[in-house]
Amino acid sequence: MNEGNTEVNTNQMHNESHLSHVDTSVEGRARRCRREPVWMIYYEKGEGPSDEDSENAMMVIEDDLVTFEEAVKSRNWRDAIEAIEKNKTRELTNLPTGVKPIGVKWIFKTKLKENGEIDKFKARFVAKGYAQQYGVDYTEVFAPIAKMDTIRIILSIAAQYGWNIFQLDVKSAFLHGDLKEEIIVQQPTGFEKKGKKEKVYKLRKALYGLKQAPRTWYNKIETYFMSNGFERCFCEHALITKSQGGNILIVSLYMDDLIYTGNDKSMCDYFRSSMMSKFEMSDLGRMRYFLGIKIL
Question: 280: burial class by Cβ within 10 Å (0-12, 13-18, 19+)?
Fold first, then answer.
Protein backbone atom coordinates (compact mmCIF):
# COMPACT_ATOMS: atom_id res chain seq x y z
CA MET A 1 0.00 0.00 0.00
CA ASN A 2 2.79 2.41 0.92
CA GLU A 3 4.60 1.71 -2.33
CA GLY A 4 1.40 2.35 -4.26
CA ASN A 5 0.82 5.62 -2.45
CA THR A 6 4.41 6.63 -3.07
CA GLU A 7 3.94 6.03 -6.81
CA VAL A 8 0.71 8.06 -6.90
CA ASN A 9 2.27 10.94 -4.96
CA THR A 10 5.28 10.90 -7.26
CA ASN A 11 3.06 11.07 -10.35
CA GLN A 12 1.00 13.86 -8.80
CA MET A 13 4.13 15.87 -8.03
CA HIS A 14 5.31 15.34 -11.62
CA ASN A 15 1.98 16.53 -13.04
CA GLU A 16 1.93 19.58 -10.76
CA SER A 17 5.47 20.41 -11.83
CA HIS A 18 4.48 20.09 -15.48
CA LEU A 19 1.43 22.32 -15.01
CA SER A 20 3.56 24.88 -13.21
CA HIS A 21 5.94 24.88 -16.18
CA VAL A 22 3.07 25.34 -18.65
CA ASP A 23 1.56 28.20 -16.62
CA THR A 24 4.89 29.96 -16.52
CA SER A 25 5.37 29.66 -20.27
CA VAL A 26 1.86 30.98 -20.95
CA GLU A 27 2.52 33.98 -18.70
CA GLY A 28 5.76 34.56 -20.54
CA ARG A 29 3.98 34.55 -23.88
CA ALA A 30 1.33 36.91 -22.54
CA ARG A 31 4.01 39.35 -21.36
CA ARG A 32 5.71 39.22 -24.74
CA CYS A 33 2.38 39.74 -26.51
CA ARG A 34 1.63 42.88 -24.51
CA ARG A 35 4.98 44.52 -25.25
CA GLU A 36 4.34 47.74 -27.13
CA PRO A 37 5.91 48.24 -30.57
CA VAL A 38 8.57 50.93 -30.97
CA TRP A 39 6.33 53.27 -32.99
CA MET A 40 3.85 53.51 -30.08
CA ILE A 41 6.22 55.78 -28.13
CA TYR A 42 5.15 58.68 -30.38
CA TYR A 43 1.47 58.41 -29.42
CA GLU A 44 -0.70 58.97 -26.37
CA LYS A 45 -3.25 56.30 -25.56
CA GLY A 46 -5.91 55.56 -22.96
CA GLU A 47 -5.60 53.10 -20.11
CA GLY A 48 -7.67 50.48 -21.90
CA PRO A 49 -9.69 47.63 -20.34
CA SER A 50 -8.73 45.88 -17.12
CA ASP A 51 -7.21 42.39 -17.02
CA GLU A 52 -10.62 41.06 -15.97
CA ASP A 53 -12.26 42.64 -19.01
CA SER A 54 -9.58 41.17 -21.28
CA GLU A 55 -10.08 37.68 -19.83
CA ASN A 56 -13.84 37.93 -20.31
CA ALA A 57 -13.34 39.05 -23.90
CA MET A 58 -11.07 36.07 -24.58
CA MET A 59 -13.85 33.70 -23.47
CA VAL A 60 -16.03 34.90 -26.36
CA ILE A 61 -15.34 33.69 -29.92
CA GLU A 62 -12.82 36.05 -31.50
CA ASP A 63 -14.69 38.80 -33.35
CA ASP A 64 -14.36 42.47 -34.20
CA LEU A 65 -12.65 44.55 -31.53
CA VAL A 66 -14.20 47.88 -30.67
CA THR A 67 -11.50 50.11 -29.22
CA PHE A 68 -7.92 50.96 -30.08
CA GLU A 69 -6.87 50.19 -26.50
CA GLU A 70 -8.06 46.59 -26.90
CA ALA A 71 -6.46 46.17 -30.30
CA VAL A 72 -3.01 47.44 -29.33
CA LYS A 73 -2.66 44.59 -26.81
CA SER A 74 -2.86 41.97 -29.58
CA ARG A 75 0.06 41.23 -31.88
CA ASN A 76 -2.30 40.49 -34.78
CA TRP A 77 -4.00 43.88 -34.56
CA ARG A 78 -0.71 45.72 -33.99
CA ASP A 79 0.57 44.25 -37.26
CA ALA A 80 -2.57 45.48 -39.05
CA ILE A 81 -2.15 48.97 -37.58
CA GLU A 82 1.52 49.07 -38.62
CA ALA A 83 0.49 48.24 -42.20
CA ILE A 84 -1.66 51.39 -42.27
CA GLU A 85 1.17 53.50 -40.82
CA LYS A 86 3.46 52.35 -43.63
CA ASN A 87 1.07 53.62 -46.32
CA LYS A 88 1.76 57.26 -45.32
CA THR A 89 -1.70 58.38 -46.36
CA ARG A 90 -1.60 61.54 -44.25
CA GLU A 91 0.64 64.27 -42.89
CA LEU A 92 0.39 66.17 -39.60
CA THR A 93 -0.29 69.87 -40.01
CA ASN A 94 -1.86 72.91 -38.35
CA LEU A 95 -5.62 73.37 -38.69
CA PRO A 96 -6.31 75.81 -41.57
CA THR A 97 -8.38 78.87 -40.67
CA GLY A 98 -12.11 78.38 -41.17
CA VAL A 99 -11.85 74.62 -41.75
CA LYS A 100 -13.74 72.12 -39.59
CA PRO A 101 -11.84 68.81 -39.55
CA ILE A 102 -13.66 65.54 -40.24
CA GLY A 103 -13.79 63.05 -37.40
CA VAL A 104 -12.09 59.65 -37.68
CA LYS A 105 -12.08 56.35 -35.82
CA TRP A 106 -10.42 52.94 -35.85
CA ILE A 107 -12.40 49.90 -37.03
CA PHE A 108 -11.08 46.38 -36.53
CA LYS A 109 -12.49 43.50 -38.57
CA THR A 110 -11.75 39.79 -38.39
CA LYS A 111 -12.15 38.26 -41.86
CA LEU A 112 -13.08 34.58 -42.00
CA LYS A 113 -12.46 31.87 -44.59
CA GLU A 114 -15.33 29.94 -46.15
CA ASN A 115 -14.90 27.21 -43.51
CA GLY A 116 -15.23 29.70 -40.66
CA GLU A 117 -11.53 29.82 -39.76
CA ILE A 118 -9.80 33.18 -39.29
CA ASP A 119 -8.31 34.43 -42.54
CA LYS A 120 -6.76 37.75 -41.52
CA PHE A 121 -7.08 40.75 -39.24
CA LYS A 122 -7.94 44.07 -40.88
CA ALA A 123 -7.51 47.46 -39.23
CA ARG A 124 -9.04 50.49 -40.88
CA PHE A 125 -8.50 54.17 -40.16
CA VAL A 126 -11.98 55.39 -41.12
CA ALA A 127 -13.22 58.92 -41.79
CA LYS A 128 -16.71 59.96 -40.69
CA GLY A 129 -17.79 60.85 -44.20
CA TYR A 130 -21.29 61.91 -43.19
CA ALA A 131 -19.75 65.24 -42.12
CA GLN A 132 -18.54 66.01 -45.67
CA GLN A 133 -20.20 68.72 -47.76
CA TYR A 134 -20.92 68.33 -51.46
CA GLY A 135 -18.90 70.73 -53.56
CA VAL A 136 -16.57 71.51 -50.66
CA ASP A 137 -14.65 68.31 -49.97
CA TYR A 138 -16.23 65.90 -52.46
CA THR A 139 -18.03 65.84 -55.83
CA GLU A 140 -18.28 62.56 -57.79
CA VAL A 141 -18.80 59.43 -55.69
CA PHE A 142 -20.06 56.79 -58.15
CA ALA A 143 -17.85 53.74 -58.77
CA PRO A 144 -18.96 50.74 -60.86
CA ILE A 145 -18.75 47.19 -59.50
CA ALA A 146 -19.33 43.88 -61.27
CA LYS A 147 -22.91 42.64 -61.42
CA MET A 148 -23.59 39.14 -60.14
CA ASP A 149 -24.84 38.18 -63.62
CA THR A 150 -21.40 39.11 -64.96
CA ILE A 151 -19.71 36.83 -62.42
CA ARG A 152 -22.03 33.96 -63.42
CA ILE A 153 -21.27 34.46 -67.13
CA ILE A 154 -17.52 34.40 -66.48
CA LEU A 155 -17.94 31.18 -64.48
CA SER A 156 -20.00 29.66 -67.32
CA ILE A 157 -17.44 30.54 -69.99
CA ALA A 158 -14.54 29.22 -67.89
CA ALA A 159 -16.41 25.97 -67.19
CA GLN A 160 -17.29 25.51 -70.86
CA TYR A 161 -13.73 25.98 -72.11
CA GLY A 162 -11.90 24.47 -69.13
CA TRP A 163 -10.15 27.71 -68.09
CA ASN A 164 -8.87 28.36 -64.59
CA ILE A 165 -10.22 31.41 -62.75
CA PHE A 166 -7.82 33.19 -60.41
CA GLN A 167 -8.40 35.72 -57.66
CA LEU A 168 -6.51 38.72 -56.28
CA ASP A 169 -7.31 40.75 -53.18
CA VAL A 170 -6.14 44.36 -53.05
CA LYS A 171 -4.77 45.32 -49.64
CA SER A 172 -6.28 48.59 -48.37
CA ALA A 173 -7.63 49.39 -51.84
CA PHE A 174 -9.08 52.81 -51.00
CA LEU A 175 -5.72 53.99 -49.66
CA HIS A 176 -4.37 53.88 -53.24
CA GLY A 177 -6.83 56.51 -54.47
CA ASP A 178 -5.50 60.01 -55.22
CA LEU A 179 -7.52 62.89 -53.76
CA LYS A 180 -8.30 66.02 -55.78
CA GLU A 181 -9.90 67.83 -52.84
CA GLU A 182 -8.17 69.06 -49.69
CA ILE A 183 -9.36 66.81 -46.85
CA ILE A 184 -8.55 67.66 -43.22
CA VAL A 185 -9.30 65.07 -40.52
CA GLN A 186 -8.84 64.92 -36.77
CA GLN A 187 -6.34 62.72 -35.01
CA PRO A 188 -8.17 59.63 -33.73
CA THR A 189 -9.03 59.55 -30.03
CA GLY A 190 -6.47 57.52 -28.11
CA PHE A 191 -3.91 57.78 -30.91
CA GLU A 192 -2.78 61.41 -30.84
CA LYS A 193 0.81 62.48 -31.40
CA LYS A 194 2.46 63.30 -28.09
CA GLY A 195 2.64 67.05 -27.52
CA LYS A 196 0.75 67.75 -30.76
CA LYS A 197 -2.87 67.08 -29.85
CA GLU A 198 -3.99 70.38 -31.37
CA LYS A 199 -2.75 69.42 -34.86
CA VAL A 200 -4.77 67.68 -37.57
CA TYR A 201 -4.07 65.40 -40.53
CA LYS A 202 -4.07 66.50 -44.16
CA LEU A 203 -4.79 63.46 -46.31
CA ARG A 204 -2.49 62.49 -49.17
CA LYS A 205 -4.63 59.50 -50.16
CA ALA A 206 -8.26 58.53 -49.72
CA LEU A 207 -9.48 56.93 -46.51
CA TYR A 208 -12.22 54.40 -45.92
CA GLY A 209 -15.38 56.26 -45.01
CA LEU A 210 -14.82 59.21 -47.36
CA LYS A 211 -17.66 59.61 -49.84
CA GLN A 212 -15.29 59.75 -52.81
CA ALA A 213 -13.05 56.86 -51.69
CA PRO A 214 -14.59 54.18 -54.00
CA ARG A 215 -14.43 56.61 -56.91
CA THR A 216 -10.76 57.50 -56.40
CA TRP A 217 -9.80 53.80 -56.21
CA TYR A 218 -11.71 52.96 -59.39
CA ASN A 219 -10.10 55.90 -61.23
CA LYS A 220 -6.66 54.67 -60.11
CA ILE A 221 -7.06 51.09 -61.28
CA GLU A 222 -8.96 52.08 -64.46
CA THR A 223 -6.06 54.34 -65.46
CA TYR A 224 -3.71 51.38 -65.00
CA PHE A 225 -5.86 49.10 -67.17
CA MET A 226 -6.29 51.62 -69.98
CA SER A 227 -2.56 52.38 -70.10
CA ASN A 228 -1.77 48.66 -70.44
CA GLY A 229 -3.88 47.82 -73.49
CA PHE A 230 -7.11 46.70 -71.81
CA GLU A 231 -10.58 47.53 -73.09
CA ARG A 232 -13.56 48.31 -70.88
CA CYS A 233 -16.91 46.73 -71.70
CA PHE A 234 -19.29 49.51 -72.83
CA CYS A 235 -22.25 48.13 -70.83
CA GLU A 236 -20.34 46.77 -67.79
CA HIS A 237 -17.52 49.10 -66.73
CA ALA A 238 -16.20 46.65 -64.13
CA LEU A 239 -15.51 44.08 -66.89
CA ILE A 240 -12.16 44.58 -68.62
CA THR A 241 -10.65 42.46 -71.41
CA LYS A 242 -7.39 42.27 -73.32
CA SER A 243 -6.81 40.49 -76.63
CA GLN A 244 -3.36 39.52 -77.84
CA GLY A 245 -2.44 37.23 -80.75
CA GLY A 246 -5.76 35.39 -80.70
CA ASN A 247 -5.69 34.96 -76.92
CA ILE A 248 -7.92 36.73 -74.42
CA LEU A 249 -7.73 37.78 -70.78
CA ILE A 250 -10.96 38.59 -68.91
CA VAL A 251 -10.88 40.62 -65.68
CA SER A 252 -13.78 41.47 -63.39
CA LEU A 253 -13.49 44.00 -60.57
CA TYR A 254 -15.62 44.20 -57.44
CA MET A 255 -14.08 46.99 -55.35
CA ASP A 256 -10.96 45.39 -53.81
CA ASP A 257 -11.72 41.87 -55.06
CA LEU A 258 -10.59 40.95 -58.54
CA ILE A 259 -10.98 37.76 -60.60
CA TYR A 260 -9.41 36.97 -63.96
CA THR A 261 -9.37 34.13 -66.48
CA GLY A 262 -8.37 33.45 -70.06
CA ASN A 263 -7.18 30.90 -72.59
CA ASP A 264 -3.46 31.66 -72.24
CA LYS A 265 -1.57 30.86 -69.02
CA SER A 266 1.33 33.22 -69.82
CA MET A 267 -1.08 36.17 -70.12
CA CYS A 268 -2.60 35.30 -66.75
CA ASP A 269 0.83 34.96 -65.13
CA TYR A 270 2.05 38.27 -66.54
CA PHE A 271 -1.12 40.04 -65.47
CA ARG A 272 -0.77 38.73 -61.91
CA SER A 273 2.88 39.77 -61.59
CA SER A 274 2.27 43.23 -63.08
CA MET A 275 -0.70 43.91 -60.79
CA MET A 276 1.21 42.80 -57.70
CA SER A 277 4.13 45.03 -58.63
CA LYS A 278 1.86 48.06 -59.10
CA PHE A 279 -0.48 47.54 -56.12
CA GLU A 280 -0.08 45.75 -52.82
CA MET A 281 -2.11 42.58 -53.31
CA SER A 282 -2.67 39.09 -51.97
CA ASP A 283 -2.55 36.29 -54.52
CA LEU A 284 -5.43 34.00 -53.54
CA GLY A 285 -4.71 31.46 -56.28
CA ARG A 286 -7.60 29.69 -57.99
CA MET A 287 -11.01 31.17 -57.29
CA ARG A 288 -12.75 29.30 -54.45
CA TYR A 289 -14.68 31.86 -52.39
CA PHE A 290 -15.99 35.11 -53.83
CA LEU A 291 -18.66 37.52 -52.52
CA GLY A 292 -19.94 34.89 -50.11
CA ILE A 293 -20.15 32.23 -52.83
CA LYS A 294 -18.13 29.03 -52.57
CA ILE A 295 -16.83 27.94 -55.98
CA LEU A 296 -16.29 24.22 -56.71
Answer: middle
Q: What is the DSSP string of 229-272?
A: T-EEETTEEEEEEEEETTEEEEEEEETTEEEEEES-HHHHHHHH
Residue-wise pLDDT tens digits, 200-259? 988 888 888 899 988 988 988 999 999 999 999 988 999 999 998 889 999 999 988 899
Number of domains in the chain: 2
Among 293, 95, 275, 118, CA closest to 199: 95
Q: What is the pTM of this model?
A: 0.66
The CA angle 24-29-35, to the nearest 5 degrees, is 130
Q: How many angstroms separate the CA atoms of 269 and 272, rounded?
A: 5
Same domain, 40 and 8: no
* 3-state secondary structure at position 139: coil
Q: Are residues 60 and 101 in the same domain?
A: yes
Instruction: Write the CA distances from 261 to 157, 241, 277, 289, integer angstroms.
Output: 10, 10, 19, 15
State how far the Cα of 165 lies from the Cα of 160, in Å rounded to an integer.
12
Which domain range does residue 136 map to?
A: 34-294
**What is the pLDDT at residue 149?**
92
Q: Predicted confidence band at 158 (pLDDT cuts at 50, 70, 90)?
A: very high
Report residue 114: phi and psi, to 5°: -65, -20
Is the domain of 142 the same as that of 14? no
Residues 115 and 238 in one domain: yes
* Strand 293-294 with 289-290, pairing: antiparallel
Q: Are residues 2 and 45 in the same domain?
A: no
